[in-house]
Design brief:
By secondary structure, the protein is of the alpha/beta class. The protein has 9 helices and 8 strands. Strand 4, helix 5 and strand 5 form a beta-alpha-beta unit. The chain is globular, with a radius of gyration of 18 Å. The protein starts with 8 loop residues before the first helix and ends in a 16-residue tail after the last helix. The structure holds pyridoxal-5'-phosphate. The site of pyridoxal-5'-phosphate has 14 residues, from strand 8 and helix 9.
């Protein structure tokens, strides 16, 4: 690694300490809710985080990372190419980035448009491979325009499942942040109920194994409500310099 971009040892130790703390908090939330820690995966949300800091986490043994923009995968790719990682796309997908995103990820967690599914299918067919997807659900109502309305999620999942190369694995939501308390928890409960309903509906080619909910502010309640994958950025890497409105342009938070 280039000496100019080396992470100061104190910063690296802070990241490793944060990872240990988050892991313990996940384990304790599991214990409180009678769940196994091995049932909950930790995805590191690495938007705005420079590759040398992501490297610290990967070298500490954490293997699942998510980016919100294809450009950030592109920019960081070379610097991390020697390290093994599973990469998910967790951002707002743009039609013109669909071919590029497939170079980097094995899962798109934020699928909420059928035309995107069709475009992905076309490209995947040509490449002779398949892709995991989660249906992004809008659990916070009018405060967000991203994600499928809960009532439309079953139909949407069934339509996506008709594309041979797409494997619907579960649901994702961002929910209500900043609004702590019961309204935020209601979003988590809503997604959990929807997840259970879709699972028992046993829709053809729709698997319901992944329930992706919970971020730095709410990963513990999310686990208590049944999350199987939490996406954590700030609690590991610290506060971001870029406002999240840049990534989710209209205030999901
Ligand atoms: C930024 C982001 C996260 C992580 O948020 P933190 O509050 O920093 O933990 C998780 N999921 C999505 C979709 C995000 O955009």
């Amino acid at each position: 690694m280039d000496a100019l971009t080396a992470v100061p040892e104190a910063d690296a130790e802070a990241i490793r300490g944060n990872l240990r703390t988050v892991t313990v908090r996940i384990e304790e939330a599991c214990r409180r809710s009678g769940r196994l820690p091995s049932d909950v995966r930790l995805l590191l949300a690495t938007k705005t985080v420079p590759p040398e800091r992501i490297r610290v986490a990967l070298e500490a043994g954490y293997r699942l990372i998510g980016e919100n923009r294809v450009q950030e995968f592109q920019q960081k790719h070379a610097a991390l190419a020697d390290l093994e990682a599973e990469r998910h796309f967790i951002g707002h997908l743009q039609s013109n980035k669909i071919n590029d995103v497939l170079k980097y990820v094995t899962c798109i967690q934020s699928l909420d448009r059928l035309d995107h599914a069709a475009k992905l299918e076309q490209r995947l067919q040509r490449e002779g491979r398949s892709l995991d997807v989660l249906v992004q659900v809008n659990t916070s109502g009018e405060t967000s325009k991203f994600g499928i309305a809960p009532d439309d999620a079953a139909k949407f999942a069934a339509e996506v499942a008709r594309f041979d190369c797409l494997r619907v694995r579960g649901l994702m939501t961002i929910g209500l942040l900043f609004t702590e308390g019961e309204r935020a928890r209601e979003c988590l409960r809503l997604l959990r109920r929807l997840f259970d309903r879709l699972k028992s509906a046993a829709i053809d080619r729709v698997e319901m194994n992944v329930l992706s909910m919970g971020m730095s502010l709410d990963f513990e309640p999310a686990i208590e409500e049944g999350s199987t994958l939490v996406r954590v950025g700030t609690s590991v890497f610290g506060k971001r310099p870029t406002p999240d409105g840049y990534y989710w342009p209209e205030g999901t938070r």
